[in-house]
Amino acid sequence: QVQLEESGGGLVQPGGSLRLSCVASGTFFSISRVAWYRQAPGKERELVAIITSGGTTNYADSVRGRFTISRDNAKNTVSLQMNSIKPEDTAVYYCNVLAVLATTTRQYWGQGTQVIVSS
Asked: What's the CA gap between 40 and 51, in Å, rounded?
């Protein structure tokens, strides 16, 4: 089993910055790819950013150049640095990991952290 604990959400003004973090704990060999998703009210959940075990990253067009995903494998932590935040970034942000277990890989979701962009 893998537990994910997210933190860092909150209220931020347009143009501001936030840093989201997700820490994985439990029983697993390693964490493969990690992603951040978000879901705004009335909308479907969408992929925001993804980082592979080797550090390759990719971003949704809407956040590219403003958000940066990073990981610390030693601490089983992934972060999402959000800069130049816009009102349309308001959403619940979810950490999603692919964990390598004893005999398989399995996907896990965090509980979500709310980001509200408002002046």
From this structure: 22
Would you put residue 53 in left (φ > 0), alpha (ψ -120 to 50) or beta? Answer: alpha
Dist. CA 22–CA 106, nearest whole Å:
17
Structure tokens given for 91: 């959403």
Q: What angle do CA 70, 71, 76 make, to 5 degrees?
A: 155
Q: Answer yes or no: are the C-beta atoms of 106 and 97 closer than 8 Å.
A: no
The dihedral built from the CA positions of residue 113, 19, 22 and 43, taken in this order, carries a sign that is positive
* pLDDT, tens only, 11-65: 999 999 999 999 999 888 888 999 999 999 999 999 999 999 999 999 999 999 9
